[in-house]
Every structure is written in C-alpha cells, then in structure tokens.
C-alpha cells in the first residue's frame, strides 16, 4: 500500500503554480466541501482559488449553483491541464448549465474569472502541485483529512 502525505496547514490551503502564477488554493477534499464549493461567497480574490480533490480521475461536472461571481474552472490530471471553462457566469436559472471536461481529471481548480485569458492558459500546461496530489498509488484510494494532514491511501 502506498501512503502519500502533504501538510494542508491549519487553514487547509495549498500552493498551486499554474501559468507562472502561484495560487493559494483552499482544499475541498471531502464530499461536503466539494458539494458546497464557492457557493454563497461574495468574492474570490486574485491569487486565490479552490482545489477540488477527487479519489480518481473522471469527467467531473461543475455548475454555478448559488454563485455570486464568475469563475474559471480548470481540470487537472497528473500535473497537467486537461481542460478548462473560462468565464463561467453565475447562474440563477432553475436549469443551470453544467460544465464538463473533455478528458478525465482528478483535480479541479476554480479561479477568479479572467485567469485563463490573462495568463494564456492552454490544455497541456503544467500545474505544480504539492507532493501527493499528482501521485496515484492504486485505482481506488480514499481521502482522509486528519489533524491538518491530508492523507491519500
């Protein structure tokens, strides 16, 4: 069995480097955190983001439920950008658009709207992530948040 650790810190954030920029990303690794996401927040400042961590690569769809501002959505797998949705607007209609990647991803990074265009992000770009976020030990692993350490088993 393979164990990979990285310290998420007291605020559960990690640094992600993308398109030459360092993003302080809040980690959403639990089902509850992924379901809530950025819903209800008033703003996402430049240099900030939310990183959704999944147990395996798949075609994870995202929608803009209860969002108050537009965002860029970036799907990442094995340390590479596999797709993105730029300038996804907040949507309050009963039937919300769903944003799906064209390739499977194990991580999704939500960023302030305009990041993709401003920094010329493209598919295939490298994403520098904390050790462990790009490592896959087995087909099925489980995420556990324990005392400010995120453990992948």
Describe the structure in brief.
By secondary structure, the protein is mainly beta. It has 2 helices and 12 strands; from the N terminus they run E-E-E-H-E-E-E-E-E-E-H-E-E-E.
Strand order of the largest sheet: 7-6-9-4-3-2-10
DSSP helical segment count:
2
Structural class of the secondary structure composition? mainly beta
Shape: globular
Q: In whole angstroms, how far apart are the ends? A: 7 Å
**Rg measurement, Å:** 15 Å
Largest beta-sheet details:
7 strands, mixed
Compile the SSE list and pairings:
Blueprint: E1 4-7, E2 13-18, E3 21-28, H1 31-36, E4 48-58, E5 62-63, E6 71-77, E7 80-88, E8 98-99, E9 105-112, H2 115-118, E10 127-128, E11 143-146, E12 149-152
Parallel strand pairs: 3-4
Antiparallel strand pairs: 1-12, 2-3, 2-10, 4-9, 5-8, 6-7, 6-9, 11-12
Written overview of the protein:
By secondary structure, the chain is mainly beta. Helices cover 7% and strands 44% of the residues. The protein is built from 2 helices and 12 strands. A 7-stranded mixed β-sheet has the order 7-6-9-4-3-2-10. It has a 3-stranded antiparallel β-sheet with strand order 1-12-11, with no helix packed on it. The model is unreliable at 1-11 and 135-153 (pLDDT under 50).
What characteristics describe this protein?
single chain; 153 residues; mainly beta; 7-stranded mixed β-sheet; 3-stranded antiparallel β-sheet; 12 strands; 7% helix; 44% strand; globular; disordered N terminus; disordered C terminus
